[in-house]
Structures are given as C-alpha cells and as structure tokens.
C-alpha cells in the first residue's frame, strides 16, 4: 500500500459521503453507502475523551461512541475527535463500521507492537507513532504506542501505554480555533509535534547516563560493563522508535504542493521534521559513543588484568626466592645432623670408634659440608 499525504478536507468529505465505505468482514453485516444509519451500540468503555467540532469550536462532548456518531450526523461540516485507551475488539469494530476503517489497520490497532509507519487505505490515513519518556527513578526509557486514524471528518487516537497524554494537545488545539478549523490534518500534525517534543527529555537523560558511565569507567567500577550494555540496548530501542518516524514525516511533506496543504501546517510539519532529524542524529552519536566507551572499557579491563597478572608473577618470584633460601638453610642445617646421627649410633663394632681424633674429625666434617653448601647456594643466589 503506497504512502501519500492527506488530501484536502472538502474533496475527501464529498467523496466520503458519496462512496460506500469498506467495512471489515468482522464488524457487521450491514451494507449501504455512507455511514451506517444504525451503528453498533457501544458504551463509554475505553474512551478517554470525545468531541465534535464545527468551524474549530467544540459543539458537543458525547459520552459514548454512539452519541458521537449521532452528533456527527446532526452537524454539517463537523469533525469528530475520539480518544481511546486500549480499546477492545468490539469498540474498534464499531468504529470500523461507522468510519469504514480497513480491517488490516484495525487488526494492527488491536495487536499493537507496531513500528512507526504511515499507510493509506482509500480516504483514511493510518499512522503509528511510538512515544518515549525517561524515568528518573530507574534511569530507564519507557515506551508507549499511539495509533491514529485520520479521515476527512474524523480523528481516532488509539493509545497503548501510559504515554503520550494527548489532553494538552486537545487543549492547545481548542484554544486555537483557527488552527483546529484546518481539520483532521492539523490534529495529526499537533500530535506529531507532541510526540516528538517528548523525545527531548529522553535525549537529555541518555546524555546524562553516558556522562555518569564515563566517570564510573575511569573510576574502575566493576559494574560499568553491565550498565554500558543495558544502556546500549535502550538506545537501540529508542532508535527503533524514532528513525522510522523520519520516513513518516517526509511522506507527509512530499504531498504539500500536490494536495495544497495549508502554509501554517507546512510550517508545523517542517518544525517536526527538524526535531526528528536532530533526535535521530543524537541517537546515532550516542550509539557511536557507547561503542567507543565499551572499547575503552575493554582496554582498561585488559590493562588491569595484565597488572594483576604481573603482580602475581612478581609475588610468585618472591615466594620462589624465599623457598630457595629456606631450602638452602635447611640443607646446611641438615648436614651436621646427618653426620652427628651417624656417629651417635650405638654399635659394638664401628670403625674409628676408639680413634682419639674422631670427635674433631666429625666436627670438621660438619663444618666442611656446611661451608661447601653455603658457597654453592650463594653462587646460585639461593641464600
């Protein structure tokens, strides 16, 4: 399915009311053109907020999807903006039946876990965005997913996750009726701006984490390698949420002249594109910096291990020297003991037993052996 920007509101509204919608087979057996005159009854359920606007002003705040459909039928040139949080299959089936949403887009909105993208199904744009926010307590990045259905006279936002909170976007748009009067396309750009602005605190948090890691690395923290790995994974996940968004924004910008997009909206989208480009470039720098940090850390760890091995080798040499000294003195002391032991044995028939100079000979033999051993060990640096 080719991706192209949103058409002008009036042209699509005329086409929308004259052509029959494409209804997913899982929703209803109703046929007919335009909107179904009897939509499936749905309670408030997961609906966060719902409003109908005419000329940029909020004219109704329905409490259910059925009331929203009814109010949209009753007002000419109206636009409905419905915000949902993790809707169930029945709620999305009702929306698909009323607004002619394509079954593949509805399936993506139910399953979630999509990458940022933009797809066109007839006169409806389906946009997937991924919001991100930095959690200071855990120093982690959390992600939320937002699905948008943008039609000629409706905006459906399906949120999966705690963020992004779109209530500030709605208040901002309602405080500027001239901007809201530009239609669903203006709401889309405002939501894009909100999501992209939410990336700035994440970038700042990652930059601070990298600074801390550099300090810990040169301080010799043993846990820094694990933190580098975990932060690298978060940066990769953040990159997956932001880089595809650049293609979404450029796809919308490609149709400025073809679909005569309002100049104010063009400025909004160019600003969003600049912020996305800056975020993507910073994330690329983070990945390269973390790769370099990991290399430096590996070098420092290797140097530390080499120093430890050198210290162990020196200690082993010192121990060998001590063993040599102990062995040398033990041998010197053992020689007199050996001679004295021989002459101390009690035998009746023993040579030199009655020799007058035998005692002096034994002493001389002990001294001679000790001197010879001392000289020998000294030359070999054993003692």
Give a structural overview.
There is one protein chain. With 383 residues, this protein is α+β, with helices and mostly antiparallel strands. The protein is 57% helix and 14% strand. It has helices at 9-18, 65-74, 89-99, 103-111, 167-174, 177-180, 184-197, 199-219, 224-253, 263-343, 358-379; strands at residues 47-54, 57-60, 78-85, 117-121, 124-135, 140-150, 154-160. Strand 6 (140-150) and strand 7 form a beta hairpin. The chain is rod-shaped and about 145 Å long.
List keywords for this structure.
single chain; 383 residues; alpha+beta; seven-stranded mixed sheet; 11 helices; 57% helix; rod-shaped
Terminal residue distance? 88 Å
Residues in β-strands, percent: 5-15%
Strands, total number: 7
Rg from alpha-carbon coordinates? 42 Å
Q: Going across the major beta sheet, what is the strand order?
A: 2-1-3-7-6-5-4
Measured as a percent range, the helix fraction is 55-70%
Rounded mean pLDDT is: 79
Q: Please mark out the parts with pLDDT under 50 across 5 or more consecutive residues, or reply none.
A: 1-44
Q: What would the principal axes of the Cα set say about the shape? A: rod-shaped
Main β sheet profile: 7 strands, mixed
Order of helices and strands: HEEHEHHEEEEHHHHHHH
Structural class computed from helices and strand pairing: alpha+beta
């Amino acid at each position: 399915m080719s991706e192209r920007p949103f058409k002008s509101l009036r042209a699509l509204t005329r086409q929308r009311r004259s052509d029959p919608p494409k209804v997913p087979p899982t929703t209803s057996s109703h046929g007919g053109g335009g909107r179904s005159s009897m939509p499936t009854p749905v309670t408030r359920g997961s609906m966060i907020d719902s409003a109908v606007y005419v000329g940029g002003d909020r004219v109704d705040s329905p409490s259910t999807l059925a009331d929203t459909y009814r109010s949209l039928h009753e007002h000419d040139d109206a636009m409905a903006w419905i915000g949902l949080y993790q809707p169930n299959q029945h709620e999305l089936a009702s929306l698909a039946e009323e607004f002619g949403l394509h079954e593949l887009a509805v399936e993506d909105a139910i399953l979630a876990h999509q990458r940022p993208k933009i797809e066109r199904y007839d006169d409806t744009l389906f946009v997937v965005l991924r919001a991100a926010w930095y959690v200071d307590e855990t120093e982690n990045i959390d992600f939320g997913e937002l699905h948008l259905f943008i039609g000629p006279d409706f905006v459906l936002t399906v949120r999966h996750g705690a963020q992004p909170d779109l209530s500030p976007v709605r208040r901002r748009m309602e405080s500027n009726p001239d901007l809201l009067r530009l239609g669903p396309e203006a709401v889309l750009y405002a939501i894009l701006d909100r999501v992209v602005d939410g990336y700035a605190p994440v970038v700042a948090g990652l930059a601070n984490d990298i600074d801390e890691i550099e300090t810990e690395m040169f301080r010799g923290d043993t846990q820094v390698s694990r933190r580098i790995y975990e932060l690298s994974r978060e940066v990769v996940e953040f990159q997956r949420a932001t880089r595809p968004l650049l293609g979404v924004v450029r796809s919308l910008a490609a149709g400025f002249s073809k679909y005569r997009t309002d100049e104010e909206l063009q400025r909004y989208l160019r600003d969003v594109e600049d912020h996305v480009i800056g975020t993507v470039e910073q994330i690329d720098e983070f990945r390269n910096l973390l790769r370099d940090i990991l290399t430096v850390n590996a070098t420092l760890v290797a140097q530390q291990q080499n120093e430890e091995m050198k210290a162990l080798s020196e200690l082993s040499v010192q121990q060998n020297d001590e063993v040599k000294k102990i062995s040398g003195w033990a041998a010197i002391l053992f020689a007199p003991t050996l001679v004295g032991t021989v002459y101390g044995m009690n035998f009746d028939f023993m040579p030199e037993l009655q020799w007058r100079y035998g005692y002096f000979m034994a002493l001389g033999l002990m001294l001679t052996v000790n001197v010879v051993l001392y000289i020998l060990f000294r030359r070999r640096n054993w003692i």
